[in-house]
């Protein structure tokens, strides 16, 4: 090549070639499946024109199975950095048009490079997964590549936000990178995750199951809890990533960005004074309360379909990001069970790791009793939530809306677990257990002695009424300072904003240690 212009032309043509990935035929096939290519996804996700690509000329180095001549510039992943809402993010997107996005040693090297850069710069890393797993021809080098990625996921955990989207297959050990990240988004109908696919399942267990049934988006959103968000389309999934990041800081040393609040700080929400039903066994929807108190009624719910008896979501108060954990009386009376405990514990720990204050809305009848829960280890799983709250050092504001019974009272960000500001609505019921259970325990011998059923019922009703008078209120707890104030429901937004403002300079450090031993 004799002049510079020729060299520039060569560069342009190489770039064009790289941008075609596995070629037009495979791109068309990707589109036919209702999927976008890696580059299309990146373009949709990032701020327009912000993408800077790394390693476009990397090629695989495998000589097995005669693939040394089957080369695609950039290999099976597109990597680089760009911005989302003008904030730096690092990204990798597996390119299904190249060897089905299957991971090679070179691909792993590219992915690790962006992860290392993200750590140095203190910026989130986003992985868009669409891959046939380990590249079979590369054998152990592909496995080594995965392990290198896992190691980086682990070291980055709690330092920078890590987000995974699954927009195609994600099978075998490959699933463990998304599992190690903070949030996973799956697109409906086009994505699936499993450790072993349907064929292996059939041969090992005899079970016949489709990919969708085994590891589709809905399954992981509702049954396993592996995915945090389900999107109908890839576009929606990418929008979820943008929205999610808007609530998060860039890293664990920063605070989440402040938004301009367009909702009145002192807005009174009169409807909240009437939202709690008179009958304590009647449910209501706690998301109506969330909508009523947060900025503009907007929130982003994580794991909406999993353990719906507890709500975990991001929202803002006066422009400040918070994580909200709320028992949901609409499902299972808002009881704490294994799944709810695990879900909320992970959310609390995420918020704490990334300096996001925690607001807890309590209406919980207790832990779910029974053999299924005990055999499943509710003790250990409930302890996770207890541990997470007790370990968290971010500002913690708690509002007891109605029931707060037994161990669940202690767990749900109580004063005793270093809750900073704990309020109760006048409808708060804070006691060891509900009236009927308590009377059963305290008066079982007296009840047994009464033979006439009507007299028995009257006795129980009388004792229950006595108990409710004494304990089904927030003032017993307020008497001891376990709640800082009993507040009028319609003032809740204002009181929480005030509380958060007062806690802005909170400093609390746990004892030095290598790490805690959370009951995993
Ligand atoms: C190399 C692969 C590949 C792989 C797919 N391809 N998977 N190449 N290694 N693992 C190639 C195909 O040869 C094909 O190449 C192209 O990708 C597209 O694949 P198709 O089969 O034509 O596509 P589709 O019909 O959509 O099926 C996609 C698929 C299927 C379901 C992912 O390809 C598949 O089952 N692949 C194997 C999945 C798997 O078992 N992976 C190993 C998991 S275990 P051409 O040239 O025709 O375009 C694992 C261990 C990781 O990953 C451990 C980490 C610790």
Fold topology:
Blueprint: H1 4-19, H2 24-32, H3 38-45, E1 52-54, E2 77-84, E3 87-94, H4 105-121, E4 125-129, H5 140-156, E5 162-166, E6 169-171, H6 176-180, E7 183-187, E8 192-194, H7 198-205, H8 211-215, H9 217-224, E9 229-231, H10 234-246, H11 286-293, E10 299-302, E11 310-317, E12 320-327, H12 338-353, E13 358-364, H13 371-376, H14 378-391, E14 396-405, H15 406-411, E15 421-424, E16 429-431, H16 435-442, H17 444-449, H18 453-471, H19 475-479, E17 485-486, H20 492-502
Parallel strand pairs: 3-4, 4-5, 5-7, 6-8, 7-9, 12-13, 13-14, 14-15, 14-16, 15-17
Antiparallel strand pairs: 1-2, 2-3, 10-11, 11-12
Shape: elongated
Poorly predicted segments:
none
End-to-end CA span = 62 Å
Main sheet characteristics: 8 strands, mixed
CATH architecture of the largest domain: Alpha-Beta Complex
Q: What small-molecule ligands were found?
A: hexanoyl-coenzyme A
> What fold name stands as the CATH topology of the largest domain?
2-enoyl-CoA Hydratase, Chain A, domain 1
Beta-strand share of residues:
15-25%
Question: Descriptors for this entry?
Answer:
single chain; 8-stranded mixed β-sheet; 20 helices; 2-enoyl-CoA Hydratase, Chain A, domain 1; 7-stranded mixed β-sheet; 3 domains; 17% strand
Structure, explained:
The chain has three domains: 2-246, 2-enoyl-CoA Hydratase, Chain A, domain 1 (Alpha-Beta Complex), CATH 3.90.226; 270-433 and 472-502, 2-enoyl-CoA Hydratase, Chain A, domain 1 (Alpha-Beta Complex); 435-471, no CATH class. Helix 4 runs parallel beside helix 5. The strands form three sheets. Strands 10, 11, 12, 13, 14, 15, 16 and 17 form an eight-stranded mixed beta sheet that branches. Strands 1-2-3-4-5-7-9 form a seven-stranded mixed beta sheet, sandwiched between helices. Strand 14, helix 15 (406-411) and strand 15 form a beta-alpha-beta unit. It is elongated and about 105 Å long. By secondary structure, the protein is α/β, with parallel strands linked by helices. The protein is 39% helix and 17% strand. Bound molecules: hexanoyl-coenzyme A. Hexanoyl-coenzyme A is lined by residues 26, 99-100, 102, 132-136, 143, 146, 169, 171-174.
């Amino acid at each position: 090549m004799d002049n510079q212009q020729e060299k520039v032309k060569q560069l342009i043509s190489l770039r064009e070639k790289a941008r075609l990935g596995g070629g037009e035929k495979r791109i068309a096939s990707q589109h036919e499946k209702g999927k976008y290519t890696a580059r299309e996804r990146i373009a949709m996700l990032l701020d327009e024109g912000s993408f800077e690509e790394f390693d476009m000329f990397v090629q695989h180095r495998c000589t097995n199975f005669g693939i040394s001549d089957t080369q695609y510039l950039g290999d099976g992943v597109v990597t680089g950095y760009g911005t989302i809402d003008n904030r730096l993010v690092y990204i990798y997107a597996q390119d299904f048009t190249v060897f089905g996005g299957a991971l090679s040693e070179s691909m792993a090297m590219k992915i690790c490079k962006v992860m290392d850069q993200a750590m140095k710069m203190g910026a989130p890393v986003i992985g868009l997964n669409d891959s046939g797993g380990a590249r079979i021809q590369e054998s152990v080098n592909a496995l080594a590549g995965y392990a290198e990625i896992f190691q980086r996921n682990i070291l980055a955990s709690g330092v920078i936000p890590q987000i995974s989207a699954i927009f195609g297959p994600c099978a075998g050990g490959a699933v463990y990178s998304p599992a190690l990240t903070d949030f996973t988004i799956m697109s409906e109908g086009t994505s699936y995750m499993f450790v072993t696919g349907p064929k292996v399942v059939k041969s090992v267990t005899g079970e016949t199951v489709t990919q969708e049934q085994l590891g589709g988006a809905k399954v992981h959103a509702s049954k396993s809890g592996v995915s945090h968000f389900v999107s109908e389309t890839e576009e929606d999934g990418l929008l979820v990533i943008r929205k999610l990041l808007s609530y998060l800081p860039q890293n664990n040393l920063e605070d989440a960005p402040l938004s301009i609040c367009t909702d009145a700080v002192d807005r009174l929400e009169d409807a909240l004074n009437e939202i709690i039903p008179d009958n304590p066994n009647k449910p209501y929807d706690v998301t109506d309360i969330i909508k009523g108190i947060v900025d503009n009624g907007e929130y982003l719910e994580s794991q909406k379909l999993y353990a719906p008896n507890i709500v975990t979501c991001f929202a803002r108060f006066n422009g400040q990001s918070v994580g909200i954990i709320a028992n949901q009386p609409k499902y299972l009376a808002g009881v704490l069970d294994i799944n709810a405990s695990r879900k909320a514990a992970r959310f609390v720990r995420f918020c704490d790791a990334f300096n996001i204050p925690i607001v807890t809305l309590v209406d919980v009848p207790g832990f779910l009793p029974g053999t299924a829960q005990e055999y499943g280890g509710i003790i250990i799983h409930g302890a996770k939530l207890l541990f997470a709250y007790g370990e968290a050092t971010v500002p913690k504001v708690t509002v007891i809306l109605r029931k707060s019974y037994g161990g669940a009272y202690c767990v749900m960000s109580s004063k005793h677990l270093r809750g900073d500001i704990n309020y109760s609505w006048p409808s708060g019921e804070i006691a060891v257990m509900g009236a009927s259970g308590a009377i059963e325990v305290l008066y079982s011998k007296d009840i047994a002695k009464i033979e006439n059923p009507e007299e028995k019922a009257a006795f129980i009703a009388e004792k229950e009424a006595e108990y409710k008078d004494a304990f089904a209120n927030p003032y017993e707890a307020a008497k001891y300072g376990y709640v800082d104030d009993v507040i009028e429901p319609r003032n809740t937004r204002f009181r929480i904003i005030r509380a958060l403002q007062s806690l802005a300079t909170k400093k609390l450090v746990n004892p030095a240690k290598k790490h805690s031993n959370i009951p995993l």
